[in-house]
Amino acid sequence: MEGGYSPGRFGRALGWATALYLVLPLFIILPVSMTDQRFLSLPHEGLSLRHYAALFASGEWFASIAQSFWIACASTILAVSAGTLFAIAAWRINRRATELLRALMLLPLIVPSIVYAIGLYRYFGWWDLLDRFAGVVIAHGVTGIPYVVITVSTALASFDVRLEQAARGMGASLRQVLAWVILPRIMPGIVSGAIFAFIHSWDELVIVLFIASRDVFTLPRRIWDGINENQDPIMAAVAMLLIVFTTLLLVVDLAVRRRRDG
Amino acid sequence: MSAALELRGLAKRYGSFVAVEGADLAVERGSFLTLLGPSGSGKTTILMMIAGFTEPSAGQLLLDGQDITALPPEKRAFGMVFQGYALFPHMSVAENIAFPLRVRGQGRAERDEKLRAALDLVQLTGFADRLPKQLSGGQQQRVALARALVFDPALLLLDEPLSALDKKLRAELQEELRALHRRVGRTFINVTHDQEEALSLSDEVAILNHGRIIQKGAPAALYERPRSRFVADFLGKSNFFQGVVRELGGGWLGVQVAGLRLRQVVDGPRPGLGAAVLLSLRPEKIAALGAEESADNIVEGVISAWSYLGAGFSLAVETALGVLRVHLPAWRAPFVPEIGAALRLGWAADAPTLVDDDDAA
């Protein structure tokens, strides 16, 4: 912000304190993950990478990481297709009823996920989707839709309607307008939505606790179990990897946005 | 000449609001028609109905005698230049111009050839790989024109194509647009609120107000023979005199205006004795008379305000007819204006026009 008022001493201190508060838990994880002890703790005598080594040697953890990754990918595809199509339809039709529908699509964000999870448990029981890859994908995909709807709707709000008119006026069919004009223009919004939907699935725990038990054992689930059962510092190592991975995704999102705005 | 496009009783209503009512218009093939009117007069609504983006509430649209009223815009495929151009920002100049060809699934060789010809037409060869945002306003406008013409549309629609440009560039592009129209020989339909643009570009102008087409004709005919007060006032400036017919001559009237008897030529239907009439007189048709000079109509006055416009003087002269607005060419002005100076003004009996007083409507 050039030319803005510079904050006072108090404001500056408050700002830094808030930022510190936000990142402090992350910084605790780093030394814990490098502890030389056998349980979750700060390092006593020296730093060690043995827990990272153990992580990479462990088949269980790797299986969970792979499973989480594939579930996140599949549910992202689901959320992006459904969310994008809905956002475009709502934008084109644009009546009062679509506003209502839009609010409905945001429900998974509003309803506490534990309530959602209980409901899903009931239905998935009937449909035999409990503890299934497909079940978790559907659950994560549906709860990921709001992120896509929000980012794509935002991208569409700044889309110049005349571009669509121009394309149609030149003889383009609806499909051509969509593929060549609308989608390329809102792609940054779609990518943003996809990244958030992916992260949502990647670290989702509450729903998984309800609808999965043994066959589907995602990474957050394994961390959760690890903390409850054996306090293994391997979890801190996993958490570090997660943080790095998520940060990378957010940097990609930032880069995409910058390219759109530039 | 046959009509390329015909509007029959076209109307658009939004609830009780009437945007366009009873629009009848025949556009000749190869001509340049301008819809001219103040904002909110319905000119853009008519253009959008022609393009197919707005559905008419009533009436018919005919292209070469075929009813196209129900056809969606992509089936009509008229070339269109939008206000602000609506170039695809994520495509290069070449991709933008080739878009209508790509939509039609034309082969690469054919596409490239037409693209080259289109770039040539608007003198943008060498700009093919640029993005729209790397072009100036005038260049973007030319890309929009090339894109609208590249697929040989039956009609080219222009929605205030020059309004985003500064004055000098606008004048340049007016000339270019006129030349382009002559070169491609297509039917152009233009929408504008700029009367100078309408006069200089068009073969024909249709003037709109409150959703109705008020008068249509060649620019000079409209300017010289406005039928109503609105047209006379909107297209240039005018002095208006309210008078009563007191004398009928052969081809002329004696009109009593505020104690003065004016001689007025009529070529249309003649109002009877005692009829109230409205005269419209262009400021540039009033002359400052020397002491011995004479004219059909003469009025004495005093200059109450004046300004110098380079090419001429604009005077406000207090007379028995009220304050007259007068334009004198500077090089021929017989004097240097001065507030309070006395002046004899005169004009020919055929200089003013009888117009309808539609201002109350």
Report on this structure.
The complex is a heterodimer of chains A (262) and B (361). Chain A has helices at residues 9-33, 50-57, 59-93, 96-105, 107-110, 113-127, 133-157, 161-169, 174-202, 206-211, 219-229, 234-261. Chain A has 262 residues and is an all-alpha fold. In chain A, α3 packs antiparallel against α4 and α3 runs antiparallel to α9 (174-202). The two termini of chain A are 17 Å apart. Chain B is α+β, with helices and mostly antiparallel strands. Chain B contains 9 helices and 20 strands. Chain B has helices spanning 43-51, 73-76, 93-103, 108-121, 137-149, 167-184, 195-201, 219-224, 229-234; strands at 3-14, 17-28, 32-36, 58-63, 66-67, 79-81, 155-159, 187-192, 204-209, 212-217, 239-248, 252-257, 260-265, 276-281, 287-288, 297-308, 312-319, 322-329, 342-347, 353-355. In chain B, the strands form 4 sheets. Chain B has a 6-stranded mixed beta sheet with strand order 6-7-8-3-9-10, sandwiched between helices. In chain B, β9 and β10 (212-217) form a beta hairpin. In chain B, α3 (93-103) crosses α4 (108-121). The radius of gyration of chain B is 25 Å and the shape is elongated. Classes of the chains: A mainly alpha (262), B alpha+beta (361).
